[in-house]
Design brief:
Layout (H helix, E strand, L loop, with lengths): L10 H33 L8 H4 L6 E11 L2 E11 L5 E5 L1 H29 L2 H5 L1
Antiparallel strand pairs: 1-2, 2-3
Helix pairs in contact: 1-3
């Protein structure tokens, strides 16, 4: 059985704004999490140490963040690198891209959870009369 059709209303067009809104929210969350990760990594690069168990295995289980500052043609640049260090001085260079992307994912998940919680709370606190306005 087919659904009743309202005159002058296109079902595809009515569905498109919901998809566009979801796409816009997704882009805002991805870019917001990226900006938050970039800013927080510059302020506190040591937060990548909390992800060390994902990158460092025995016998190099201790993580160290090293910042390298050097003069370039445009001024002073600083790079961060995650090293896994062992008891006997062994080191494994894990770089910065993988820890940065992992932090980005963690921040994105935190933002999604926050948005969902706020949406649920705001729906519970509004009355049906407020929805009809």
């Amino acid at each position: 059985m087919t659904e009743p059709v309202e005159l002058g209303v296109n079902a595809e067009r009515a569905r498109r704004p919901a998809v566009a809104r979801a796409l816009i929210w997704g882009m805002v969350i991805v870019f917001g999490a990226g900006f938050l990760t970039l800013t927080s990594s510059v302020i506190w690069p040591g937060q990548a140490l909390y992800l060390a168990p994902l990158f460092c295995e025995q016998p190099t289980a201790e993580a160290v963040i090293v910042s390298d500052t050097y003069a370039s043609g445009d001024g002073i640049s600083t790079d961060f690198t995650l090293y896994c260090v062992g008891d006997r001085g062994q080191t494994i260079d894990e770089g910065w891209l993988r820890p940065f992307l992992m932090l980005w994912g963690c921040y994105a998940v935190a933002i999604v959870v926050l948005v969902v919680v706020v949406a649920i709370i705001s729906r519970k606190t509004t009355t049906p009369e407020q929805h009809s306005l």
